[in-house]
Inverse folding.
């Protein structure tokens, strides 16, 4: 299938969503109930207090307490249309505002969900009509001009009801998927050939076509990625083998970061290379592969130890953490 498509598996304790581009999965999201509000969710909240010492506001919503830093609120004009200088110029206590969640809660270190202020705050009177998972899916469909296929009727109806109003008609067709086999025999992720890719990716080791591999190791403070030549490049010179493996790995790493929703600090240990030209070629390949990532990761050059550091905006626990230890991830603990 060409174009963008969103596949939603709503059964079980943890609904899942996969974004496909031209039939290939490029992004994956898991939504445990304990993690709400979800990154990307749009909701309405009331300002409960202004914390001048940290230049931020605390808010309350149907999904719990939220934090609005000044940097995420200053798009709103201050009184008289003046440029805001503090959080008090953007919002005031008791005001109801529309927000977008940019980072989920991390109870392990006491951090609240972080939100940004929506530029449109007119007519706010309570819970946003498009909050929750259905609203998030509808917004995502509009942003990607994507068709949506959902395997659960209630969620399907909710998304369909919201789609035109939320997306302005930019979303594709929204359909309900019904398993044609025996009940429970095959789920929607299997039908669209996504589950096999998930199973491979969450194993932490991704094979490369050349015979090498990359290994992904999440920790509490960072994600380490190691590139290994393995059986790659038989019959080639060692330098060419290392370069080719690293070039292929650069594309695979960029895909894995987005697909597995890996954020925060990432340290990549590429196979060692001897020439500056080879290292530059790998960095160029990495930049090209990262260019399509909507979270716009930033990277360093090679360190004296041959490592590349990369920072990608963290929206919550990665898919690896959610699958390996759902309870620990929800509590913000390292699995």
């Amino acid at each position: 299938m060409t174009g963008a498509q969103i596949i939603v598996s709503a059964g079980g304790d943890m609904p899942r969503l996969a974004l496909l581009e031209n039939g290939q999965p490029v992004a994956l999201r898991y939504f445990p109930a304990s993690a709400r509000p979800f990154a990307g969710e749009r909701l309405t909240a009331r300002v409960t207090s202004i914390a001048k010492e940290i230049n931020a506001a605390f808010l309350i919503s149907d999904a719990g307490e939220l934090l609005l830093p000044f940097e995420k609120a200053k798009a709103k004009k201050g009184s008289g249309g003046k440029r805001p200088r503090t959080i008090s110029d953007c919002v005031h206590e008791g005001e109801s505002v529309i927000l977008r969640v940019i980072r989920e809660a991390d109870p392990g270190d006491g951090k609240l969900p972080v939100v940004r202020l929506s530029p449109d705050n007119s007519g706010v009177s309570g819970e946003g009509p498009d909050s929750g998972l259905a609203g998030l899916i509808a917004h995502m469909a509009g942003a990607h001009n994507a068709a949506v296929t959902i395997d659960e009727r209630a969620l399907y109806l909710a998304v369909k009801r919201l789609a035109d109003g939320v997306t302005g008609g930019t979303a594709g067709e929204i359909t309900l998927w019904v398993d044609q086999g025996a009940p429970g025999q095959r789920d929607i992720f299997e039908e669209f050939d996504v589950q096999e890719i998930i199973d491979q990716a969450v194993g932490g080791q991704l094979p490369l076509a050349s015979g090498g591999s990359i290994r992904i190791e999440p920790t509490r403070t960072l994600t380490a990625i190691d590139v290994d030549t393995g059986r790659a490049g038989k019959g080639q010179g060692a330098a060419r083998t290392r370069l080719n493996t690293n070039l292929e790995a650069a594309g695979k790493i960029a895909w894995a970061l987005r697909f597995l929703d890996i954020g925060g600090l990432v340290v990549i240990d590429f196979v060692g290379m001897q020439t500056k030209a080879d290292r530059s070629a790998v960095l160029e390949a990495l930049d090209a592969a990262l260019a399509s990532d909507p979270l716009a990761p930033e990277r360093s050059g090679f360190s004296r130890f041959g490592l590349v550091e990369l920072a990608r905006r963290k929206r919550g626990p990665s898919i690896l953490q959610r699958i390996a230890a759902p309870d620990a991830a929800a509590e913000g603990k390292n699995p």
In short: The first strand starts at residue 4 and ends at 9. The two ends are 37 Å apart (CA to CA). The chain is about 25% helix and 25% strand.
